[in-house]
Write a structure and sequence with these properties.
Length: 319
């Protein structure tokens, strides 16, 4: 077998499995079968379409750096159960719960960014004030778990998607517009059907705390934040093996406009490709736009800032 395509397995011994070592061979086989039926496993792949190096996980993996697989996953196979994947060690940061295969994560914000993985059954009170948003009623469908404020769920590919909310602890405020604006409501218990609050598929930003408590400042990358420096003026990227992700690409401290010219000429894909080229990268394979609310934006072709309408966000560039 080619070493680059070898699959490794990370197994966690639970007390029940340790005890099973004292059983007879037939009882041990039955115990192992029951264990895999109950918890399943997930296989992470380095490239899309289940290519490249892979690792099979059938228990908790709080830090993928331990097995040299941090920020590498571009496709996943689920061999049973529901699995939580998170962007930070110890299941912190933004998390996503899934129970189906993902053959191509290249246009998802979690691509090449997963750091910890565990079965959903391991989730517990350590989530503190976290919530899980579900795409279906009664806590079904795709799920996204967050423990920190998120000023725009588009960054997590979950904008206007939630139909039910599981509250783990504390209280949260959910809003229909970004930056915790628009119609907002405080959630102090799990909600199986958001239609009762007229929030079905309308939630765009979420934060811990009550509606009358001060909202955190918008999550914007600081000027010259650590990350991928690029070879041009584009700032604030996070490098993966084959891509670089810019949550809010900036030049000279200004968010990039979604058009090359202030006049509104050459927008969208062309502007995104030019932004990647500014960082010495090949092309944009994914991007979103976000209303700027009249704040100054940097126009690449004009090489200057000006008040604009839409800025680039979630820019994913191929190296």
């Amino acid at each position: 077998m080619n070493a680059s395509h070898a699959e490794r397995t990370l197994t966690v011994l639970r007390p029940a499995l340790v005890a099973s070592l004292l059983l007879s061979p037939s009882a041990l086989a039955q115990s192992e079968t029951q264990h895999h039926r109950d918890s399943g496993a997930i296989v992470l792949y380095e490239h899309v379409n289940y290519e490249g190096r892979s690792v099979r996980i059938d228990g908790e993996a709080p830090d993928l750096r331990w097995i040299d697989f941090n920020d590498l996953t571009s496709s996943m196979r689920v061999e049973g159960g529901r699995w939580e994947v998170c962007l930070e060690p110890d299941y912190r940061g933004s998390c996503h719960v899934l129970d189906e295969d993902l053959p191509n994560m290249s246009e998802w914000a979690f691509n090449d960014r997963i750091t910890s993985v565990r079965p959903v059954s391991f989730r517990g009170p350590d989530r503190e004030a976290g919530i899980t948003l579900y795409s279906g009623f009664d806590y079904s469908g795709r799920a996204l778990t967050v423990i920190d404020p998120v000023d725009n769920l588009s960054r997590m590919s979950f904008n206007d998607t939630a139909r039910s909310i599981e509250l783990h602890a504390g209280v949260w405020t959910v809003c229909v517009d970004d930056d915790y604006r628009g119609g907002c409501r405080t959630i102090d218990r799990s909600v199986s059907d958001l239609r009762r609050f007229r929030l079905d598929q309308r939630i765009t930003s979420v934060r811990p705390g009550r509606l009358d408590e001060p909202a955190p400042p918008p999550q914007r990358p600081p000027h010259h934040q650590p990350g991928y420096p690029g070879t041009g003026g584009l700032e604030g990227g996070v490098a993966g093996p084959n891509t670089v992700f810019f949550a809010v690409p900036e030049v000279n401290g200004y968010p990039l406009a979604a058009c090359l010219f202030e006049s509104g000429y050459r927008c969208g894909q062309e502007a995104a490709d030019a932004a990647c080229a500014e960082a010495g990268l090949r092309r944009a394979i994914h991007f979103s736009t976000e209303h700027a609310g009249g704040q100054p934006l940097w126009y690449l072709a004009d090489a200057r800032p000006a008040r604009g309408r839409d800025g680039l966000t979630d820019l994913l560039c191929a190296q």
